[in-house]
Design goal:
This protein is an all-alpha fold. It contains ten helices and no strands. α5 (67-85) packs parallel to α7 (113-121), α6 (89-106) packs parallel to α9 (132-151) and α7 packs antiparallel against α9.
Length: 196
């Protein structure tokens, strides 16, 4: 809405906003990697550059209808970055809850934030017990989101409809798609907007 109010239908402002958000995401990925790799610049810069420039990640930046993915891709690394950076436990709990809420308000894929927080603490397992309130705050926001969807929005969040394909067919598809995406990640030749 703010983009439209400032620039109307001119796509320039929309693309500038997308580039700024994506750039901030890349900086957050650098910060996360810097902490996880004990202040080493090379792996941190590599992680940020892959996040910023990899062809598989460009759709959220260039395709304006994917703004929700772009914002979720900002709030998820922000949650992890602040989780690793903030020394005060109360601030960590608040930031975990706030970024989870903003991520879920952007796109449901942000539901992975509680898991990402836990995974970020695995290299230094001593932190896991003391940071449990942050995990629980992110999980609490997720639970509130699910309840909101089911009651207020009346969206059947866990509704299982008649499947289009059998479980066996889905497993066969997934077993082919995951290696294909891994291959495209390692060698992104031939990636186009239709590759999704």
């Amino acid at each position: 809405a703010l983009n439209y109010r400032i620039g109307g239908k001119d796509p320039t402002g929309w693309h500038i906003f997308s580039l700024i958000v994506h750039g901030l995401s890349a900086l957050l990925v650098f910060g996360i990697a810097y902490r996880l790799f004990s202040g080493k610049w090379l792996p941190s810069t590599t992680a940020a550059l892959i996040w910023a420039a990899h062809p598989l990640l460009n759709e959220a930046v260039t395709y304006q209808a994917a703004r929700s993915s772009l914002l979720a891709g900002l709030f998820a690394p922000a949650a992890v970055y602040f989780h690793l950076s903030v020394k005060d436990n109360k601030a960590r709990v608040v930031s975990a809850a706030a970024f989870t809420a903003m991520g879920l308000a952007s796109k449901e894929t942000a539901a992975v934030i509680p898991v990402l927080l836990l995974l970020a603490d695995i290299p230094d397992r001593r932190n896991i017990k003391s940071r449990r309130p942050a995990y629980l705050s992110a999980l609490g926001v997720f639970a509130a989101y699910v309840i909101y969807r089911m009651t207020v929005l009346e969206v059947p969040t866990f509704h299982i409809s008649t499947p289009v394909r059998s479980v066996y067919s889905n497993l066969l598809t997934e077993s082919a798609i995951i290696p294909a995406y891994a291959g495209k990640f390692l060698w992104p030749a031939g990636v186009s907007i239709e590759w999704n």
